[in-house]
Design a protein that fits this description.
It contains five helices and no strands. The protein is mostly helical and about 180 residues long. It has one domain. The longest helix has about 45 residues. The radius of gyration is 26 Å and the shape is elongated. The N and C termini lie far apart (about 85 Å). About 15% of the residues are buried. This is STX8 protein.
């Protein structure tokens, strides 16, 4: 079975994003030491442009695959989420490149979140919980509604227990007053 071209392109885009983050980090080290980083700036700018182009290609391929039903709607939703995450990453890199980000070392936040591990194709994402893995948007909304209903039922039960305890406390207080 031939590898899916969308997945190959996605892996390439992730690799470009990771390399760009490393170059930005290297450029920042040079700037802190007072060294020139002009060459790195050119390479970073080029990498960011390539990343933008790859993301656009991913969007086009995804739209085509969903519209021709080459992939299921569930897989389309999953891939759209990956593209959205990659787009967010690209914006973070752009902000970091322009030193507009809140944190000059963008990779630090992913490291601290526990999302960066060697060999992982998308190191800035946290692991998706097992109960939501493979679910579409509609399924996730249904699951969220069910969880909220369970929480509401639990709160109703807790409310009735607290009301009963309040009533018992008042009766105990009345009994003590009578005994005294």
């Amino acid at each position: 079975m031939a590898p899916d071209p969308w997945l190959s392109l996605y892996d390439t885009a992730c690799q470009i994003a990771q390399e760009t983050a490393e170059r930005i980090q290297e450029r920042n080290r040079y700037q802190r030491k007072g060294e020139s980083s002009a060459k790195l700036n050119v390479v970073i700018r080029s990498s960011l442009q390539t990343l933008r182009e790859k993301i656009e290609q991913l969007k086009e391929l995804l739209l085509r695959a969903v519209s021709t039903r080459q992939i299921t709607q569930l897989e389309g939703d999953r891939r759209q989420s990956l593209v959205d995450d990659l787009l967010t990453r690209q914006k973070q890199l752009q902000a970091s490149y322009q030193n507009e980000g809140t944190e000059p070392d963008v990779t630090r936040s992913s490291l601290m979140a526990g999302g960066a591990k060697r060999g992982v194709s998308n190191p800035w994402l946290l692991e998706e919980p097992e109960e939501s893995r493979g679910l579409g948007v509609a399924d996730l909304r249904q699951q969220q509604r069910r969880i909220i209903e369970e929480q509401d039922a639990g709160l109703d039960a807790l409310s009735s227990i607290i009301s009963r305890q309040k009533q018992m406390g008042q009766e105990i207080g009345n009994e003590l007053d009578e005994q005294n």
